[in-house]
Design a protein that fits this description.
By secondary structure, the chain is of the alpha+beta class. The chain contains 9 helices and 6 strands, in the order αααααββββββαααα. Helix 5 packs across helix 7, helix 7 packs parallel to helix 9 and helix 8 packs antiparallel against helix 9.
């Protein structure tokens, strides 16, 4: 690597780290002022506030806005290079514009790889501690608000509950249907089902079991039945943001499980899974846009470049959110919804690269 490469990499990564660190400090101050009453009211230990909450929240924030600050960093220091005529001097020395992009992409690779590693392996473990702190000292305990719950707990076995209460581990209007070769062989109906923590079993109250064997039907009734069923309370006590606490391999396995069980949150889980790689890849696209846009010396200087750059970056984030909503509430494929912004902005990046001064 040449001195020029090291110079650009140092400027790129230095500006990125400084800008995001500055914003984190500001955000932390505002967050403390917002939650200070809760901390005092619930006597949250200072050590827990710092290490369990904020130290585990900062990686989440860095990864959430990593692509945006990559773009801002590129725009900021490249505009300064252009304003000082350094880009013109580099091109005049015989170095091609394509060659100048090498240290930019090396820096983008470092940031993108770090982002993917954070999202896939570091943040999930940090989020567990952070969310536990949130439930204990800031927010309210999780309550399952889902009604008319349908699940396939294993191939051919389906359960239904009108509602489930996490605090009492009780499901109302419980039923379980078992099919073999697409034929109903057993149907259980009960008033309620309760998790018995001591026995590690479910207790079914006021039940009725109908069994079918060809044309023959038998019925069994009872007041109380302790039984093992192939699902646990975790199935209904997972919060909506549970995907934040799972590594990528764990999340992929969980998605397959939820598909089999017919869960309603499969699309949201798939979007989260695909976003981890798409967000890391966006670092390269936004870097190319930033360099191509800000390498030209213009009368507006850094302000003009930052204005156009921020407009593009925020439109990217907005487009990403809109496409995710279409996937969640519509029929768009989750992978396509996540990658559409990258595909569209890749064309913008190529166009700006072609128009950049060579």
């Amino acid at each position: 690597m040449k001195k020029l490469d090291l110079y650009i990499i140092k400027k790129f990564l230095g500006t990125f780290i400084f800008s995001i660190a500055l914003l984190i400090c500001i955000i932390v101050v505002f967050d403390v002022s917002e939650h200070i009453e809760k901390f005092i009211e619930k006597s949250a230990p200072f050590k827990s506030i710092v290490f369990d909450y904020y130290m585990n929240w900062i990686p989440f924030f860095v990864n959430q806005f990593g692509a945006l600050f990559t773009f801002i960093a590129v725009i900021f220091f490249t505009s300064k290079l252009a304003a000082n005529s350094e880009i013109i001097a580099i091109l005049s020395s015989g170095i091609s514009f394509r060659r100048i992009l090498l240290p930019y992409f090396i820096s983008a690779l470092v940031i993108g790889a770090t982002s993917y590693a954070l999202a896939s392996y570091v943040i999930p473990h940090a989020s567990k501690t952070r969310l536990e702190f949130w439930d204990q000292y800031i927010g309210k305990k999780f309550r399952n608000k889902e009604n008319n719950i349908h699940r396939q707990i294993r191939p051919g076995v389906f359960i239904y509950m009108s509602k489930y209460r996490v605090n009492s581990n009780t499901g109302r209007s419980f039923s379980m249907d078992e099919f073999k070769d697409k034929k109903l062989v057993s149907k259980l109906n009960s008033e309620k089902i309760v998790w018995n923590k001591e026995l590690g079993k479910w207790t079914i109250h006021n039940y009725r079991i109908r069994s079918f064997d060809g044309d023959k039907e038998t019925m069994t009734k009872g007041v109380k039945l302790d039984t093992l069923l192939p699902f646990t309370t975790k199935e209904f006590s997972r919060r909506a943001d549970v995907s934040e606490t799972m590594t990528t391999p764990q999340l992929s396995k969980y998605i397959d499980q939820q598909k089999m069980r017919g869960s309603s949150n499969v699309v949201q889980l798939q979007i989260e899974n695909y976003k981890r790689l798409a967000s890391a890849f966006a670092t390269f696209i936004l870097t190319l846009i930033g360099v191509s846009l800000s390498s030209r010396k213009v009368r507006g200087g850094i302000g003009m470049h930052l204005g156009v750059g921020l407009a593009l970056s925020f439109s990217y984030i907005l487009f990403q959110q809109v496409s995710s909503v279409f996937a969640t509430n519509g029929t768009m494929d989750p992978m396509l919804a996540v990658w559409i912004p990258n595909i569209l902005y890749s064309f913008i990046a190529v166009y700006l690269y072609i128009k950049a001064p060579k």
